[in-house]
């Protein structure tokens, strides 16, 4: 069979007033990613030649987000079309039609239904067969507000009746329209021009296409989704939170099936863009965000928050580590209470301990900073050891400067490294030193005033204060 040229139209012009937000509803995050983004990702997976997003309320913000999303999609044409003076879902699709290039099939999605699965969309499209239209439906626990699927005596779809237009018998119908449709493009083009607003809401209903198809003797088909949760639209903050929770569970379950252990799956946040490998262990309260990628055998302990972090095989991230845009190398150990800021790259077998903050810092193989340090704009050579309380003084109030340590450098506790400064291989810095000049390989740098011990000083001070 010849493959179909397909376009996806995402309806996203609605107001979303129940969110009570200045942010357009479709940009509200569900599991850390705008709900429209989830819809677009699924749309792209259907391999369309183009995607059109119908915008209205909050148009500028929605368009800006769509454009930046589209800039990461190669070979896919994505554009926004403004629906002027919105008058219903049918009216919205009318706006898309003049912008479509030649296609055989249209898939209509809603921007506020983020939980729909790709396999359900595929099922919706195959339910159409060669017919004019198929519609996604489900058995609603409470059908109030939804369009009801009306069938005739022979079980064929006669049409969809909106809740506000339905009589009391029709309101008994539990099979409701979820809204998403697959349409043959030629049918959509002709039937959309037949819509009228002769209904309870004075709108152009997309759902009337089902009645039109039936009246033309080519009844549409229904694809019934098994899982009602998937079909739910998000209109309120509470629904946004519950959609997030549903998706969160789905993602965690997926990774458990792929060989990842979760110590407390109910308390773990893993975004859809995260990648995990087998035999990873994730502790309670862990958040994995963005493009975080955790390789085999790595362990992420309780309360750690990682965003855009690559954790390589066998690494151990101890409790309450916070890291962003960083690399944690093979067999490295980090935490507890470590802060890896953007540009931190810990190579294999490094060790970074409690209350250490790093930023644009490279720690080469086996380097260690076990306690209480700030390491910014620096390159720490292999097997170097950074003592407790070491600070790279990288900022003079205007500019940032680099600290470079060779291999096997030993930095004593409470050292300040005033950048720009370079320490050669095997250099040694005595505790309490302020390093302001380069240290040659193998040299000791020490800057301290000599210690004096004054015998009997305490007793003399005591007797002085007693006599006064
Ligand atoms: C629609 C369906 C209803 C279905 C329900 C499922 C129609 C007439 N009714 O009703 O059968 O049970 O969804 O949730 O289609 N939108 C636009 N422009 C508009 C109006 C809406 O882009 O002029 C977009 C909205 O942003 C939203 C989607 O279309 O993404 C659905 O609109 P909404 O107003 O929620 O439709 P419902 O009345 O809920
Ligand atoms: Mg709705």
Q: What is this structure's SSE topology?
A:
Blueprint: E1 6-12, E2 29-30, E3 33-34, H1 35-45, E4 50-55, H2 59-70, E5 77-82, H3 89-96, E6 105-110, H4 118-128, E7 133-139, E8 148-151, E9 157-161, H5 168-171, E10 175-184, H6 185-192, H7 208-215, E11 221-224, H8 237-257, E12 261-262, E13 269-270, E14 275-276, E15 281-282, E16 287-289, E17 293-294, E18 299-300, E19 305-311, E20 316-317, E21 322-328, E22 333-334, E23 339-340, E24 344-346, E25 351-363, E26 368-380, E27 385-386, E28 391-393, E29 403-405, E30 410-411, E31 416-418, E32 421-423, E33 428-429, E34 434-435, E35 444-445, H9 457-467
Parallel strand pairs: 1-4, 1-6, 4-5, 7-11, 12-15, 13-16, 14-17, 15-18, 16-19, 17-19, 18-20, 19-21, 20-22, 21-23, 21-24, 22-25, 23-25, 24-25, 25-26, 26-27, 26-29, 27-30, 28-31, 29-32, 30-33, 31-34, 33-35
Antiparallel strand pairs: 2-3, 6-10, 7-10, 8-9
The chain binds uridine-diphosphate-N-acetylglucosamine (UD1) and magnesium ion.
């Amino acid at each position: 069979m010849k493959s179909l040229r397909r376009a996806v139209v995402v309806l996203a012009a609605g107001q979303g007033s129940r969110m009570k937000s200045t942010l357009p509803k479709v940009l509200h995050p569900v599991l850390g990613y705008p709900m429209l983004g989830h819809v677009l990702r699924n749309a792209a997976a259907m391999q369309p030649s183009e995607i059109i997003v119908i915008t209205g309320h909050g148009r500028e913000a929605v368009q800006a987000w769509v454009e930046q999303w589209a800039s990461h999609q190669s070979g896919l044409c994505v554009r926004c079309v403004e629906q002027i003076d919105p008058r219903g879902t049918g009216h919205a699709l009318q706006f898309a039609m003049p912008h479509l290039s030649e296609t055989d099939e249209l898939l209509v999605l809603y921007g506020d239904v983020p939980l729909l699965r790709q396999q359900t969309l595929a099922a919706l499209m195959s339910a159409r067969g060669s017919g004019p239209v198929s519609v996604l439906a489900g058995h609603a626990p409470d059908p109030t507000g939804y369009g009801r699927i009306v069938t005739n005596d022979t079980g064929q779809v006669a049409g969809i009746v909106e809740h506000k237009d339905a009589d009391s018998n029709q309101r008994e119908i539990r099979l409701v329209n979820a809204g998403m449709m697959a349409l043959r493009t030629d049918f959509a083009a002709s039937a959309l021009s037949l819509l009228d607003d002769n209904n309870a809401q004075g709108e152009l209903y997309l759902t009337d296409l089902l009645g039109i198809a039936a009246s033309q003797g080519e009844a549409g088909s229904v694809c019934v989704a098994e899982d009602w949760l998937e079909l739910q639209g998000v209109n309120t903050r509470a629904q946004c939170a519950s959609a997030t929770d549903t998706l969160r569970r789905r993602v965690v379950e997926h990774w458990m099936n792929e060989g990842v252990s979760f110590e407390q799956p109910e308390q773990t946040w893993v975004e859809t863009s995260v990648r995990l490998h087998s035999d990873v262990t994730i502790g309670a309260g862990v958040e994995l965000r963005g493009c975080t990628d955790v390789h085999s055998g790595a362990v992420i302990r309780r309360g750690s928050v990682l965003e855009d972090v690559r954790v390589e095989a066998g690494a151990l991230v101890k409790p309450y580590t916070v890291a962003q845009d960083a690399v944690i190398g093979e067999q490295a150990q980090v935490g507890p209470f470590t802060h890896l800021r953007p540009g931190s790259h810990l190579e294999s077998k490094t060790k970074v301990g409690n209350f250490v903050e790093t930023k644009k810092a490279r720690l080469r193989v086996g380097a260690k900073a076990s306690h209480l340090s700030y390491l910014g704009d620096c390159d720490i050579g292999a097997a170097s050891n950074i003592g407790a309380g070491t600070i790279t003084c990288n900022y003079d109030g205007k500019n940032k400067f680099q600290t470079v340590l060779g291999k096997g450098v030993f930095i004593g506790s409470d050292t300040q490294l005033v950048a720009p400064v370079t320490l050669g291989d095997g250099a040694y810095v005595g505790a309490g030193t302020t390093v302001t000049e380069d240290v040659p390989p193998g040299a000791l740098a020490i800057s301290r005033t000599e210690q004096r011990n004054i015998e009997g000083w305490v007793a003399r001070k005591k007797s002085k204060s007693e006599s006064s």
